[in-house]
Every structure is written in C-alpha cells, then in structure tokens.
What we know:
Blueprint: H1 2-8, E1 16-19, H2 25-34, E2 39-42, H3 46-54, E3 58-59, H4 63-67, E4 72-75, H5 80-87, H6 93-96, E5 102-105, H7 111-122, E6 127-130, E7 133-134, H8 136-142, E8 145-150, H9 153-163, E9 167-174, H10 178-206, H11 211-219, H12 226-237, H13 246-263, H14 268-285, H15 293-300
Parallel strand pairs: 1-2, 1-4, 2-3, 4-5, 5-6, 8-9
Antiparallel strand pairs: 7-8
This protein binds nicotinamide-adenine-dinucleotide.
Nicotinamide-adenine-dinucleotide binds at residues 19-25, 42-45, 48, 76-79, 82, 85-86, 107-108, 133-134, 136-137, 243-244, 248.
Amino acid sequence: xxxxxxxxxxxxxxxxxxxxxxxxxxxxxxxxxxxxxxxxxxxxxxxxxxxxxxxxxxxxxxxxxxxxxxxxxxxxxxxxxxxxxxxxxxxxxxxxxxxxxxxxxxxxxxxxxxxxxxxxxxxxxxxxxxxxxxxxxxxxxxxxxxxxxxxxxxxxxxxxxxxxxxxxxxxxxxxxxxxxxxxxxxxxxxxxxxxxxxxxxxxxxxxxxxxxxxxxxxxxxxxxxxxxxxxxxxxxxxxxxxxxxxxxxxxxxxxxxxxxxxxxxxxxxxxxxxxxxxxxxxxxxxxxxxxxxxxxxxxxxxxxx
Length: 305
Ligand code: NAD
C-alpha cells in the first residue's frame, strides 16, 4: 500500500522501459522499482521477466510493447550487435517509441555504434545518451555504479535523477560516444589490474606465503584497488562464477585496442592482456568471471588449474 501512495504522490515521474535484464539489468531495474519508478521490461529469458514482475515491474511480450508508452528507455544488452538488433528494424525501439522519448543505452559498446544510434534516433525525434557503467554485479545490486555519459547536457540533466537511483559517480564526459570511450579505458585498467593481481597470487602461492594474509596487507597499501577488494575471494576460493564474463571482457578489449589504434595511442601492456583474455576464451573459459585470468597465469606457470 505504501508504494502505491508513493507512486500517486509523484505523478510526474517518467515511465521507464527496460530492455535487457541480465546480470546487470535485473538488479538495476529493481533499484528503479525501489525508488518508485514504474518499469516495463523485455528480455530474452522468461525467468528474468518473471523476476521483474515479482519485483513489482511489468513484463512485456516484445520490445515494441515495452517501449510504446515509455518516456525513458533504458537498454542493457551485451554488445553492439545486440544494441543494433533492439534499436533498429520494424520491431525495434526507434520504430515503436514515442517522439521525444529518451534512450539511455547503458550497454558497453563501440563508441561509433553510440554515435550512429544517436544520429539515427534524432531523425525519428528520439534522443539518446550513452551511459555505460563500472562497478560490476555488486555495484549494480548496491546502486553504487560509476556511470560515464556521452551526449547532450539537457538529456544528461533529464536522466540524472534516474541514474542517481543506480549509481554514485555520474559524469557527463562529452558528446555522443564519449561515455563509451571512457568505459573502454575503464576496461583496460580493470583487465591490467586483474592480470597483475593474478600474477601476484601465483607468485605468492609458489613462494609459500599465506595468500589471505598477503592479499589483506597488499590491499591496505598502494597496491590496493577496488579490483582486489571485489575479486580477492574469487582468487582465494578459485570461485569464477560470473560476475563479469570473460566473453564480455574479450569484447571490451577489442573495443579499446581498436579505438586506441584509431587515435594513434599505443597500449603495449593492454595488447598483451587482450591476448591473454582471448586465450582464456579459446580454452573454453569464456563463461567464467574475468578473475579467471588467474587460470591463464597458472597454466603459464605450470601450476595446478
Ligand atoms: P548478460 O548477458 O547477463 O545480460 C544481457 C541481457 O540482454 C540478457 O538478459 C539478454 O536476454 C538481453 N538481450 C540480448 N539480446 C536481446 C534482444 N535482442 N532483445 C532483448 N533482450 C536482449 O550481460 P550483463 O553482464 O548484464 O552485461 C550487460 C552489459 O553491461 C554488457 O555490455 C557488459 O559489458 C556491461 N557490463 C557488465 C558488467 C558485469 O559485471 N556483468 C559490469 C559493467 C558493465
């Protein structure tokens, strides 16, 4: 009863459509429901639609049905091909959304896909911002994500109250695609950091040091990081349940190495880590969490995987 009262006391809240209810999209959309927004969702898995309905949202039968009455359409799908699949074509968002609707694409995709989407949407009277996130599944659940935005200032301002229900650090980085460029840099830093942690873990274990004690003290000094805080237990327990899948990080290393080459930036260490991520995937570990970079270092070191 109290949530109905809260809804009726805030009639001006935008109606939200959410496309893509995966590891990130499910908890994020639930945070919007908790904040009092109405959310109509669509995704490919029935169990995720059931989860949304159970949390108080509405499950739609198609993208068209989800977006037709929405003021703001949030998308959170794996990569550029999926963003293009949900945006374009007769069943897609651009053909079925209201004029004046705002698309907030939170997927991590190539900057060029975001630029093209904004341009194509504008021709239909629909606005877009790119708003990829960092902080992982835990950050999504706890609503403490970092959100890096590209697009127009007015659209950022309009989306900000919604984004504040999902994250803590929310920054407009520049024009369309800028959020994706910053996210690509984020993925470079995270992958290199995980790789360094994984190498340290194998080195410490082979040296016979108490790993738990070592990681605790390391995390209190300059070597400490959010990566180490969030992934320490994955390393200690060899628990590689995702989280953030190697398949997705492989996609992101492709985005960052390609974007860097386009602007003439050299990423020597990033290129090596991109190869290690690709190798993990080729060995069948693509569905594991990215902390499974530890398995690659173990294989290289002749340690038990
Ligand atoms: P996921 O694979 O768990 O979820 C993706 C969802 O998209 C699925 O539920 C799927 O049904 C839906 N989808 C795909 N194609 C669709 C279509 N045509 N129509 C409707 N729904 C469709 O992925 P995730 O881990 O939630 O990641 C989503 C995005 O967020 C990715 O771009 C990823 O790189 C980024 N990201 C993930 C994390 C993380 O820790 N998992 C962290 C930051 C950013």
